[in-house]
Fold this sequence. Notes:
Elements (H helix, E strand, L loop, with lengths): L12 E10 L2 E11 L4 E5 L6 H9 L6 E6 L5 E4 L13 H6 L6 H10 L15 H13 L5 E5 L7 H18 L2 E6 L11 E5 L3 E5 L1 H6 L1 H7 L2 H4 L10 E3 L5 E3 L4 E2 L22
Helix pairs in contact: 3-4
Amino acid sequence: MLQSTAGSAGPLVEMKNAGVRRSGRWLVRGVDLTVRRGEIVTLIGPNGSGKSTTVKTAIGVIAPDEGTVRREPALKVGYVPQKVSVDWTLPLSVERLMRLTGPLTRGKMDEALQAAGIAHLAGAEVQTLSGGEFQRALLARALVREPDLLVLDEPVQGVDFSGEIALYQLIREIRDRTGCGILLISHDLHVVMAETDTVICLNGHVCCRGTPENVLKSPEYVRLFGARAGDTLAIYHHHHDHTHLPDGRVRLTDGTVAEHCEEHHAHDHAGGAKEERDAG
Ligand SMILES: Nc1ncnc2c1ncn2[C@@H]1O[C@H](COP(=O)(O)OP(=O)(O)OP(=O)(O)O)[C@@H](O)[C@H]1O
């Protein structure tokens, strides 16, 4: 089972006033960050704002120069990198990619590929995968470890808008099913981040934090991301306002039954530039 082990009720990772200093300057400073089981936390910020440094500090790849970082004992981390260096001239199937870092039973591999939604691509050559499929293959690799904490660095890079929605939906499903904590890195708030519990906006320090809606409205965020913050960004809301019946009709929360769900999906758009329909 791709199920994280139930540990203590405390945070998976907790950073308090953490700072990292290199070559005489603070790369990040004063970072407070907590990820609990079942929680999705997203770090956003411009290039060079310290997102990767913060994540590496959170998972213990680098030690803080000030402040504290506490992790749950024996915390298992699954990491989905932003990029991998693969020699594309060599043939490499998805199955081999999954086995590059260690032996893996067929069952575990199938389960992880299934969880990432690419079971049908096990035998495919990695170089033929689309951007979204490749991200899913990297995600499957991380899921094999049955992580308590899943860390994804820019998960929707090279993925089109509908692929972006599908990937965020998958990330949420993984969280719902396994109960793991998820730490996402992104350069900006994405339209589908409404499922994120907490957004932390970095620029060498924490500029602002809160729900996606609150961060979107905060003057610090608008200052950092400029006019496009208000003009082009839409927050996608998925309202679970109905139940699908076996005959294809839907029952709404008020008990009425409708033929289709489309007309009953309500979407909020903070900026209104992107329209997206919920597939139900
Ligand atoms: N070991 C190091 N020594 C000196 N400077 C470093 C070191 N590692 C990172 N930096 C610098 O620290 C800053 C923050 O880097 P970091 O990779 O954390 O940013 P980021 O927000 O993840 O950026 P991006 O969005 O471009 O991936 C950058 O200016 C980077 O050049």
